[in-house]
Q: What sequence folds into this?
């Protein structure tokens, strides 16, 4: 499948989800069921199979790891300098996450898979975000607000999920060259088949729920969208190409990841800490629209 065909497939599946959402073919409870199946079954199984099919050394690319983290923290510093003086620590942390924490599960993983034919960069991005970035910010937010739930329990809730546990298990198995029983690999492979398409379909359903108004676009939202959808991918590209000298696959995986929309999990975190909830909800919606526009330019870069 060439690049144009891959891009057509991506937009085609998203459009079907958008159409189904606009026509109200699925109730909200059905959409939640899709999301639960994707996050708790399909994607974990897909990642488990994808990692086992790759050599461990090819999965862990240290220049990519450093580039990914440096681009995130560069965006974080840029956002912090803009907001810290007039906003609380909790609010600044949420805005940093909104401007740099990307939607790997529903967006970058299927897009990287379709455009570049290999999901391992998206797998690595997901692990970096959840294990390092999300955990670090949960610690800061928990310490700043003294929530009733203990910090270890909060971290455990964020890390002990199928989307993290299964990829970690498969990385360990791959590293020690342990082959699971063929029944296990067959089951996970079949459950994971179609995960990328389901993710894009759900992305389309989510887009159909967006109802933006002119008054929503205040100064704060515009800054965050500008930072997320333009500055972040530019920084990622410059770091990847001229500082870390990433190879073609890793470089464009980096750009796709950086240009992905804000992850919905940031809205959940904002809700838990009662900070900037409405702003983050709008940010998820607006960044999703602009990410699709940027995807066309990314595909031209890859071509």
A:
């Amino acid at each position: 499948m060439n690049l144009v065909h891959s891009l057509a497939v991506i937009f085609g599946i998203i459009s079907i989800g958008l159409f189904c959402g606009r026509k109200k073919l699925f109730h909200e409870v059905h959409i939640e069921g899709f999301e639960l199946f994707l996050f708790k079954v399909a994607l974990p199984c897909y990642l488990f199979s994808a990692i086992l099919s790759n050599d461990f050394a090819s999965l862990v690319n240290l220049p990519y790891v450093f580039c990914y983290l440096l681009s995130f923290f560069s965006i974080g510093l840029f956002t912090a300098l803009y907001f810290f003086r007039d906003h609380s620590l909790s609010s600044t942390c949420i805005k940093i996450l909104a401007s740099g924490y990307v939607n790997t599960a529903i967006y970058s993983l299927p897009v990287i898979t379709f455009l570049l034919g290999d999901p391992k960069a998206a797998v690595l991005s997901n692990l970096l975000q959840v294990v390092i970035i999300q955990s670090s910010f949960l610690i800061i937010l928990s310490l700043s607000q003294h929530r009733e739930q203990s910090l270890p329990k909060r971290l455990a809730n964020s890390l002990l999920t199928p989307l993290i546990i299964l990829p970690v298990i498969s990385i360990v198995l791959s590293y020690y060259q342990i082959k699971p029983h063929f029944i296990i690999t067959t089951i996970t492979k079949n459950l994971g088949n179609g995960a990328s398409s389901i993710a894009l379909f759900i992305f389309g359903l989510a887009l159909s729920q967006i109802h933006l108004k002119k008054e929503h676009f205040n100064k704060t939202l515009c800054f965050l969208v500008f930072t997320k959808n333009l500055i972040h991918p530019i920084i990622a590209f410059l770091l990847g190409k001229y500082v870390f000298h990433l190879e073609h696959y890793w470089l464009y995986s980096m750009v796709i990841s950086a240009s992905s929309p804000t992850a919905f999990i940031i809205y959940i975190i904002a809700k838990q800490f009662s900070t900037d909830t409405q702003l983050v909800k709008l940010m998820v919606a607006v960044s999703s629209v602009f990410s699709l526009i940027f995807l066309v330019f990314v595909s031209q870069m890859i071509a």
About this structure: The chain has a mean pLDDT of 86.
